[in-house]
């Protein structure tokens, strides 16, 4: 079961990375929607894992995960605003990299 979750997590990270690359090269609303959906899935996986671990009195780095989740959600909101305003492509790349870094930290 654990190995299957690890494979699913790795596949999700790879798909997010691929969409992030696509989004930085050719920003579009449809790619952003798919990207946002996948990040929502990743955050949902983390939240469900945190809920399970909380039942076992696990609290070690819970605050760090919440901060990373919040940073990811804020970066997504900013990314959406930048793309809606035909924003700076370098800012799009920075935001995609920030989101990717947060997700790698969260899912690792």
UniProtKB/TrEMBL annotation:
Full protein name: Four helix bundle protein
Organism domain of life: Bacteria
Pfam families membership: DUF327
Native organism taxonomy: Bacteria, Thermotogati, Synergistota, Synergistia, Synergistales
